[in-house]
């Protein structure tokens, strides 16, 4: 059972040691603050767009874009919770339902979540997606409400499962007689329209709202406001606050990352028994978070994205072309018994891995032979090996020696 006294010391130090935090929950992503600095324009725009529901009219569907940590979810929840309380004052029958599509993971779970919010209970499995959708539509119509559906991280589900469920939702008003639906889609990927059927895209994006990244000054204000609530007075050094803002602004103005850095820096400082949180604690927090972020990104990749990444891993060159990667990907799919995607679709997945910072894909000119894309890994091979070894579907493929590279290695360095 190990030595209990070690843990006694650990727990006692935690309980009796230096207290830097007042309330660490304030630094979590899902904490919704009283006010959202530097997002007044977006709040106003979204407010104006949804206001018609207070008079019983359906508002436009809205598509919200922006990178992670730019306040999209916070602003949407903030506006809609105010809208719901205003609707009660005016006696308007308005309800909203928030669903995170990455968490839901399937069309079935999305429709089941929507059904629950109009008072239907749906079994965890066992029905067809069509059946769940029909029950939801009937239950919704019987409720006689204006229903605002928020689909957060909708890009994750569309890339994984396609956009058929979105097509159903954008067409739903045609079959409702007593209720009305408005959709708010939130996407971290600015290129989502490449994945969407043009008809779905045009009906979903009647209004568009783009959230730009925060700059260092804005991030500093956000962190300052939150740190007053989360830390004891005087424990956060000015330099730690500045460097958290600067690092997150350089990354791409991501407030989540800034809040994570601040929270983990506080935890590092507390563990070391420090009285104040310094720049050095932030530097340590950054290393810790960066490693965890890449591991989490690798674990969350879809099956085919993992196979594409493994193909680049197996090529083990300074850079490879899409064609070379596709040959190995073809073999890996065969080994695993997975259906093959087209080379064009593989190109889209490579772009996505590039935008996540896992590979670097750049187009280079080959003179009169035209242009080609050169792809190389941006993260260490040992990290990929460690993460994929933990996944029993992939542990075998890590050790696999592709025939293509065996053929090529005899002829090239």
Protein model, in words:
With 413 residues, the chain is an alpha/beta fold. The chain has three domains: 40-211, P-loop containing nucleotide triphosphate hydrolases (Rossmann fold), CATH 3.40.50.300; 214-296, Helicase, Ruva Protein, domain 3 (Orthogonal Bundle); 301-411, Winged helix-like DNA-binding domain superfamily/Winged helix DNA-binding domain (Arc Repressor Mutant, subunit A), CATH 1.10.10.10. It has helices at residues 4-16, 40-50, 72-90, 101-104, 107-117, 129-143, 154-161, 164-171, 198-204, 216-230, 238-251, 255-271, 279-300, 303-315, 322-336, 343-355, 381-389, 392-399, 403-411; strands at residues 62-66, 94-100, 146-152, 180-187, 207-211, 320-321, 359-365, 371-377. The protein starts with a helix and ends with a helix.
Biggest β-sheet strands, sense, barrel? 5 strands, parallel
Q: Would you tell me which CATH topology of the largest domain applies? A: Rossmann fold
Mean pLDDT over the residues: 89
Give me the side-by-side strand order of the main sheet: 2-3-4-1-5
Q: What is the beta-strand fraction?
A: 5-15%
User: Which CATH class of the largest domain?
Assistant: Alpha Beta
Helical content (DSSP H or I, runs of 4+): 55-70%
Order of helices and strands: HHEHEHHHEHHEHEHHHHHEHHEEHHH
CATH architecture of the largest domain: 3-Layer(aba) Sandwich
Count of discrete domains? 3
Q: Determine Rg (CA atoms, Å).
A: 25 Å
| Strand tally | 8
Structural class by helix and strand composition: alpha/beta
Globular, elongated, flat, extended or rod-shaped: what is the shape? globular
Please identify which CATH superfamily of the largest domain we are dealing with: P-loop containing nucleotide triphosphate hydrolases
* Uncertain regions spanning at least 5 consecutive residues: 409-413
Task: Give the number of helices.
Answer: 19
